[in-house]
Specification:
The protein has one helix at residues 14-20, and strands at residues 26-29, 33-38, 41-46, 50-53, 61-65, 72-75, 90-92, 96-100, 114-121, 124-131, 139-142, 149-153. By secondary structure, it is mainly beta. The longest helix has 7 residues, at 14-20.
Amino acid sequence: MLWMSRGGNVSVLLRDLFASELGELRHEPTAKRVRAELGGLTVVDSLRAELVWEPRRVVPTYAVPVEDVDGELVASSAPAPDETGKPVGFAIPDVTDLPVLDPRVPFGVRSTDGDPVDVHAAGRMVAGFRPGDPDLAGYVVLDFDAFDRWLEEDDV
């Protein structure tokens, strides 16, 4: 039996699939236990983490339930990135006309509604973001690079 996909095509170019959803907020649960450390202390420990791609971001970051963070979340004190009116991001002309937000674009640049927060934990402060999307209510997206170490475990 031959399996047919969309429109009778047997295959789809990955770049077409990628580009078709690039402007949307995307998330996917992970079955892994995810932990993050600051100063040798575990400040994130979650069995319910989600990988989150903001619109135009090509690399995901972790979001975890707020209760899985051993720290205090407060409204962000960081200034918003400078708005010059110029589109932020980098071109991938073979994939999309949208400028993409790759790892060179700082975590603080937002492409979806929500609230930036500071996470105070282990005597330090790291950036976080609470998306406004109802599917991610109660979650905080964390600045991956701000933590000293991340651990992912398959066996939970």
